[in-house]
Amino acid sequence: MKTFCKLFRLITVICLISLLNLSAYTHTNAQRGDNFRFDHLSLKEGLSQSTVLAIVQDRYGFMWFGTEDGLNKYDGYNFTVYRHDPEVSHSLPNNRVTALHVDQNGTLWIGTFGGLSKFDHEKESFTNYHHHPDISQSLREDAISVIYENKIGEMWIGTESGWLHRFDEKREEFISFRGDPSAIRALYEDSSGRFWVGNIKGLQEFHRNEGGRFTIYQHDPANPKTLNTNSVLSIFSTPNDNRLLVGTWGGGLSVFHAEDNTFSHYMHDQNDPTSLSNNAIWTMFEDGKGRLWIGTENPLDWNGWRRD
Fold it and tell me: What pLDDT band is residue 298 in, cutting at 50, 70 and 90?
């Protein structure tokens, strides 16, 4: 886990990728990644810190970025930064913001290395949830790595030591599950109801109705149609089809094709300045205009992926 914590500090880019005509690209074009165009945002524009770990857009249209040093709200022109204040109980619980989510009611949730937090837009304050050793239905640890909500409104929380929690907000209780002790980096339920977990051991399908059984998809060096690497950092799906986007550490973007359980890949090409900036993809988010934001490892980029 220490190695991953060090790697977590390296992320420095956000790429904005439009999802137009994704299905029209061939596997060859995906490998070349030759349809990327970039502009840049940076500390100069007001971002609190260049290590961007999480991205989300709220119901008001603001973009939110979680960094190693604070929570950033971006209105398209300026940044507003929120940080922990030890003198204020309703401030952000920790400055290392590792996960962001807007639920079906429009509430912004923040995962930090000091617990889970809920943001009140009107009061500009935070309600915080922590691990309590004497309360079995509290968080099992405060180092939050993933926040995810499925279609029926279930909130799932993943942590750095592999704890998976289902959060009952009405009762303010956490139901805990323990799978592999590796840090959970991604949670996702696809359109067919399949529940996915990503960690350093691969892409795993969590069978909730079968006793918590896992099916694991891993890299096979002898098979180019498998996952590019076992270190899965983020999971997302493209609209209107059955493909899963899997962001990895060092393997770029792998696209899972459910019809035959194979993968195709988008990779950085050092000879092509319009390819992916880097092969480490930490986070993905689709905004209200159908554009996909991808957090990778270089300066803060914003990308329009289009068919030329």
Answer: low
